[in-house]
Amino acid sequence: MEQTECLAADDAGIARAAEILAAGGLVAFPTETVYGLGGDARKDATTARIFDAKGRPRFNPLISHLPDLEAAERYALFDARARAVAEKFWPGPLTLVLPQREGAGLSPLATAGLATVALRVPAHPVARALLQAFGGPLAAPSANPSGRVSPTRAGHVLAGLSGRIAAVLDGGACAVGVESTILGLDGDQPRLLRPGGVPLEALQEALGQEVLIGPGAGADDKRPNAPGQLSSHYAPGAMVRLGARGAETGEILIGFGPVKGDLTLSAAGDLVEAAAQLFHILREADLLAGPGGRIAFAPVPETGLGRAINDRLSRAAAPRG
Ligand code: TXA
Ligand code: MG
């Protein structure tokens, strides 16, 4: 156990965080999607500690975070298509899976030994300041114990990882609230590997090409060639039921739009608001439901950010393996 420092997201806090990272320590930091558990992506011992702190299987590779496209190009091969989406959506909630540039120096633990690498340039000002101060690639999975609900506030990080990481930078609540969209650009056809903060429709429009859904052949539950794709994930303590128009006895109902609940993702039926609230509400509902309790969610449309919301909800509802 170590004492986890809670750092204010000011110049002193960011300088302290960069110092811990330079010494090989782990610091959770805010991004616009969720809080990340950051460590130097070039160091084997540090990336190994990220897996240990989360209890994450080592075959599940990490996203490396960079301050800008130029820095990202040191670690991966960008074709014209990749450069076009990077220029359009970075900084922002998009991760690109690209062929790795050989000998670029990322730890093979960070990439789980794959020939590809997942890269993201986050937009959150605290994440950007930290990347500038640190001056290297930060491997950062979501800052939660593996398989649990992702953190969108510093308090969520501490609830799951206090005593297992050196520090958390407190940047308040994350604005997007669901993880980045992961786009695979390592083959002929672009693939949506995880729906997230950039809607599929926006990617399709920018690429002017159809985006295939899912990882394609070769992926399975034990060895995901793709993102976050272990089927039971985001698991709260309570059982979760989806598509509910009303509560059954003993259920905590989470509403959306016209379906009123004990809590609501968005009374106005706004998908952006619903995504921003999703993980916090899932935690609140879990507390209200109590151990062995039950949570029901109203239906959410499968468009825009609704795709990412429904993906996370169906994993929260999946049988626990
Ligand atoms: O919004 C986000 O993406 C957050 C913030 C912190 O940036 N990070 C995040 O990381 O969600 P994580 O580790 O929870 O999810 C990253 C996913 C993993 O499920 C992994 O399977 C996938 O990215 N991934 C990483 N490298 C990959 C690769 N080379 N090919 C395919 N998938 C990859
Ligand atoms: Mg995660």
From TrEMBL:
Keywords: ATP-binding, Cytoplasm, Nucleotide-binding, Nucleotidyltransferase, Transferase, tRNA processing. It catalyses: L-threonine + hydrogencarbonate + ATP = L-threonylcarbamoyladenylate + diphosphate + H2O. PROSITE patterns: YRDC. It is found in: Cytoplasm. It comes from the Bacteria. The keyword Transmembrane helix does not apply. Residues 11-198 form the YrdC-like domain. Coiled coil: none annotated. Gene3D superfamilies: DHBP synthase (3.90.870.10), Threonylcarbamoyl-AMP synthase, C-terminal domain (3.40.50.11030). Its EC number is 2.7.7.87. It is an enzyme of class 2 (transferase). Pfam families: Sua5_C, Sua5_yciO_yrdC. The keyword Hydrolase does not apply. Required for the formation of a threonylcarbamoyl group on adenosine at position 37 (t(6)A37) in tRNAs that read codons beginning with adenine. NCBIfam families: L-threonylcarbamoyladenylate synthase. Belongs to the SUA5 family. This is Threonylcarbamoyl-AMP synthase.
